[in-house]
Amino acid sequence: MVSSPHEAMHRIFQENPGLFSGLSEVLGIDFPPPTSVTVLPNDLTETSPVERRVDTLLRLDTEDGEPLLLAVEAQGGKDSGKPASWAYYAAYLLAKYRLQPLLLVVCQDRATAEWAAREVHFGPRQWPVLTLRPLVAGPHNMPVITDPAEVRKDLALATLAAITHATHPDAGAILKSMTTVLRDTPQSIADPIIELVAQGLGKHPAAELWRKLVAVDLSFYKSSLSQELRDEGRAEGRAEGRAEGEARRAAEDILDILEVRGIDVPEAVRERITGCGDPEILRHWHRRAVTAPTAEDVLTEE
Fold first, then answer.
1. In b/e form, how buried is each residue of 258-273, taking b as 16+ CB within 10 angstroms?
2. Domain of life, per the record (predicted)?
3. Where is pLDDT greater, at 10 or 277?
């Protein structure tokens, strides 16, 4: 599996072509809902040896009869050469397809998102010949979705929001709301979402938290990520008593979640967690560890 947030941030539009409709509403831009979506070749290379590829390219046929081209770019950092490339993409797409192009840039950090959202003028200062104005989605304007009911309203949008908020302080609650909904989602829909979120979180600490949640909450799924986690568990289980091994791993998962969230664990709490052999209690503590404000609150009964 490719472990690149870059791939997930644009490929989700290929997996869920209708995503842009919900996203445009979140971003406050009034685009007509598409009546059909076509994934187009992303190769913008001309006959010259310079190769140019937009990350994802979609044709959106809309209710008002005016189709547009949506070019999606996943941007991981500031790049002084990108605005010129984006301007080239827009001009080339307009010339090739004779349809109005729209550039959407998806980011995971606020600084990059604000940089990408700037208007860039090309040409003399007195008379710019071209103005680039990307539409940007990132942690500065994507919703923080921690309510499973909101996730169910638009699962694709919630997936993109979770990816863009990879470093958010409430990442645990965001990801927990996702697995809560995915438990009741058909496997054919849930599997690609599980992989997209894992891919989108990349090497951020939230990625390990996602692995733990998938292992516990979605253990019955057969996605490559959940299968990988189960295989790891089986290998370890053969080396030690199954019940003891599962309890130890569950305790480690709880402590890992608290560590990822930056919560200090007093020694007394750590000893109680690692000394517990009841799988039901450990499962209950695991779920509380995702949102509890302190380590002590994990052990406190509701």
1. bebbebebeeebeeeb
2. Bacteria
3. 10
pLDDT class of 233 with cuts at 50, 70, 90: low
Q: What is the mean pLDDT of residues 92-100?
A: 92
Does residue 199 sit in the same domain as residue 129? no
Q: Does one domain contain both 93 and 162?
A: no
> What mean pLDDT do residues 81-88 have?
93
Domain ends where: 137, 165, 195? 137
What's the pLDDT tens digit per position in 40-55? 888 877 656 556 789 9
Strand partners, 136: 105
DSSP output for the chain: ----HHHHHHHHHHH-TTHHHHHHHHTT---PPEEEEEEPP-B---SSS---B-SEEEEEEETTS--EEEEEEEE-S--TTHHHHHHHHHHHHHHHH-SEEEEEEEESSHHHHHHHTS-EEES-TTS-SEEE--EEESTTTS-----HHHHHH-HHHHHHHHHHTTT-TTHHHHHHHHHHHHTTS-HHHHHHHHHHHHHHHTTSHHHHHHHHHHHHHTTT---HHHHHHHHHHHHHHHTS-HHHHHHHHHHHHHHHHHHHTT----HHHHHHHHT---HHHHHHHHHHHTT-SSHHHHHS--
Which pLDDT band, with edges at 50, 70 and 90, does 2 fall under? very low
Beta pairing partners, 100: 68
| Out of 61-75, 175-189, 216-230, least confident range | 216-230
Place of tokens 């941030």: 9
Within-domain flag for 293: yes
Check whether residue 174 and residue 268 sit in a common domain: yes
pLDDT(159) > 70 = yes
